[in-house]
Amino acid sequence: MSEYVVGQRWLSSQQPELGLGMIASADNRQVTIYFPLTEEDKLYSAQNNPLIRLVLNPDEEAKDVEGRVFTVLDAIENQGVVLYSVQYQGTSEATTLPETQLSFHTQVNQPEQRLFSLQLDKPSWFDARASVMEQKHNHFTSDRLGLCGARVSLLDYQINIAQQVGNRIAPRVLLADEVGLGKTIEAAMILQKQVLAGHAQRILILVPESLIHQWLVELLRRVNMVFSVFDEERFAALKEQDINPFDSEQFILCSVESMLASNEAQTALLASQFDVLVVDEAHHLHWSETEVSADYALVESLAKIIPGVILLTATPDQLGHESHFARLRLLDPARFTDFVTYQSEQTQYHALAELTEMILQDMEQHVAGKDVLSTATNALIKQQYPDIVFTNSPECDAMALIYELIDHHGTGRMFYRNTRQAVAHDSQREVHTYPLATPKTYEIYTQTMLETAEEACFMHELPDFLDTWTTIDPRCEWLLAHIAEHTDKTLLICRSARTVLQLAEYIKEQTGLHIPVFHEQMSLVERDRAAHFFADPEEGANLLLCSEIGSEGRNFQFCRHLILFDLPMQPDLLEQRIGRLDRIGQTQTIQIHVPYLSGSAPHTLLDFYHEGLNALSYTCAVGSKVFAQFATEINDNLLAGSGTNEALLGQIGALTAQFNEERQSGRDKLLEISSSGKGLVEDLVEDLSNPVFERELEDFTHLLFEAMGIHQEINDAHSFIIKPTEDLAHAIHGLPDDGLTVTYRRDIATAREELTYLSWDHPLIIELIHTIEDESTGKASVAFMADKSIPVGAFYLETLYKVQADHHGMDNNPFLAATPIRLLVNFKGELLSADDLPEMSKVSPKIARKLLPALQGHIEKALAKSAEFAQKRADVVIADSQYLVSEKLGNEVTRLQRLQAINPSISDVEVTTLQTQLDQTMQAVSQAQLHLDSIRLIVNNP
Ligand SMILES: Nc1ncnc2c1ncn2[C@@H]1O[C@H](COP(=O)(O)OP(=O)(O)OP(=O)(O)O)[C@@H](O)[C@H]1O
């Protein structure tokens, strides 16, 4: 039978641009190939032609005529035509595919095939591929992965959380830093690390509707993650297409409200598979043994099926300890089964916190720069914690000892809480209170008509004053005077949307000014527009009137004046309000203005907050707990309207002091230490701020851009413009036609929003790296050298291999990152060092066509020798990786198992998840294979 059979796929080595052809007819003399790409038939001699037969090998990836990606499992020849057994991406079953159905863009991929079929590229491409693989390996195995690309200031406590949680498979944590310390940023960094490390592909974020836009922008601006917002409209439109709408995107952001509004959406959400769920403002998730809120029930159902769960709240205790317990229960239902046991555990952290304090005090008295424990501390550890093994020598690392103690007996790895005090983000606040005369009408009403404390605190909201309160309440006139006096931006927060609207109307009537408003009855777009208008430093409004909803999650730290037009009845809400201004990025002293009606219930409430809790001048983490203790007394005092009960005020102050002290010496103290990462994270932060990596990337992108046909020019001292050229080798997603203005420097990027921050984590860089890796370009090249000491026609052969663990879904796992091996052998198959690499010059395609057939046999022998050397090195790489896996993951599993026996805070889920990770990684590493990636032949032609 002829070598040529109708239906076979062949390429032209002289005209690769024709794509993959198919034999249309053949006899002993001639063969006709049809090239679908150009829709033409070409006639070749059967004896002497530039045709190359394309047969894909097992494990090769390719596309079918419809562009669907598959991996070859097997290739079986039947009467000269190949029938492939393939597995399509995203499926688990094998399918058969005749070679006639291959995409006409398919190319010869194997380096040696490309070499002998003369599909050659510039010799410099070999260096480009080697460099790309080396840099990729370096980055994907470094701790900087997923953290170096965030456009943020590097704060130790945030990096600590992002590093610890981001590295876990299926993390389940509660992030509860105090208001405004950057939980959103921490979650964004965790997600980026999860995705880059291959731990998560699909993410669902649920937030209150008012925060959708802010999250969307923060994720994009800070970590370059593009989320798709799903609202009712989008859900309905996608539903028409007869697919689960939530399966249509990888990263989904939606509001809790929109999901609760539709049973159908909830069912679809639960049927879609996600790797990580994030829920912001999780204190709204209300649970008690008798009542469960709808949002809690939804999150509970999702948390049962989504492996990773990240809950965010600044005020974990807002709805009481029971609700806090319930949120922990969402994370680990097996561990948190019983509220009473949980409560008793919480009290047991006291002794450990005290010991920790002693060690910290010892640390203040270093001896010759080393930590030395006092005799008392030493004795206490030995007596109370005999399981802790440590050496109290001058080399004793006290911080390491504290972490060991917290690990063994502390709060576990599920709950993080940083406080302003502990992370030294102490902003300044100044409080201005303005006593105003209580209107007679309010006074009379107070004595006769009121039924609840709430009515007493918000009299202007009572139906009887609905239309009149702005004319009698002196706070309104006070507000006009404040507006006239202050030209700085001011945020006003009050409880209800109605008050906001009435105040806006009042100001308009009195002054003609249109003040922007922000409340729950506005659409999302209207709210964002108002917030934007307020934020605009030049053209924007100086005052924004906000209802309570505006006080949650929003970033208003660009302004320093806050008017608390009324006071909320819960201390945590007060903290949320102040937290709009008191957040990372606030550079000025915050001015808090409280106008109040003298002698009225709001006056008493102000006394409780300001004098009792001291919650206006400082963050008060125990406010809700104190208020809960005196709930009845506070209620009665507010309702009586007879001025502040001084005895009660004294009791509130005393209990606040007591709780604060207990906090400092209990669970929260331990949380503060373990959340801050003090003593653990400094080296990593130093590494992340090292400008060397930015410079290295800048050099590397020159190579990348040149290879891919991207032009870079200087824009100013710190930035560049990059644009695709006509030679662009491949469409690049992240690079628009009109280019990008970029900087490689984090400090410049955080100061100049308009610049794209190009880092090793940036999607454009990752896309370019993957594109070059996946491209066939550069897999084979030929060059000349001129060396009189060796015969003409002698050659060197450079090979680039990679050791790769093919484990689906874990390709980026640091333990499994492809490791490049670059080798140089001579024509005798002897291994040379990289220093022996000669100077190279180009070879014309015509000469290469003559040379290669003549040298083929010798090259194949040298290649076989090179493969032997590569395999030896690969064995070492695999053994090293196995060692690393058992050293890092194995030891961690052993440590957790040991800890679990002592500390109930270490959950079963945590241990089994890590054990599974260890098993899978070890198996994948052990089965890693050596692949030849590219070849460069250097022939002597002196
Ligand atoms: N490392 C950082 N670098 C620069 N800005 C930051 C950093 N961390 C936080 N911020 C900024 O500080 C503000 C508060 O951060 P974020 O919204 O993440 O806090 P939060 O703890 O989620 O707040 P809340 O408790 O109100 O929900 C935001 O404007 C955020 O962009």
UniProtKB/TrEMBL annotation:
Molecular function GO terms recorded: ATP binding; DNA binding; helicase activity; hydrolase activity, acting on acid anhydrides
EC numbers: 3.6.4.-
Keyword entries, A-Z: Activator, ATP-binding, DNA-binding, Helicase, Hydrolase, Nucleotide-binding, Transcription, Transcription regulation
Annotated residues for binding of ATP: 177-184
Motif (DEAH box): 280-283
Broad enzyme group: hydrolase
One Pfam family in the UniProt entry: RapA_C
SUPFAM superfamilies: P-loop containing nucleoside triphosphate hydrolases
GO biological process, one term: regulation of DNA-templated transcription
Functional summary from the UniProt entry: Transcription regulator that activates transcription by stimulating RNA polymerase (RNAP) recycling in case of stress conditions such as supercoiled DNA or high salt concentrations. Probably acts by releasing the RNAP, when it is trapped or immobilized on tightly supercoiled DNA. Does not activate transcription on linear DNA. Probably not involved in DNA repair.
NCBIfam families tied to this protein: PRK04914.1
Quaternary structure and interacting proteins, as annotated: Interacts with the RNAP. Has a higher affinity for the core RNAP than for the holoenzyme. Its ATPase activity is stimulated by binding to RNAP.
Protein name in the entry: RNA polymerase-associated protein RapA
Organism in which the protein naturally occurs: Opacimonas viscosa
Gene giving rise to this polypeptide: rapA
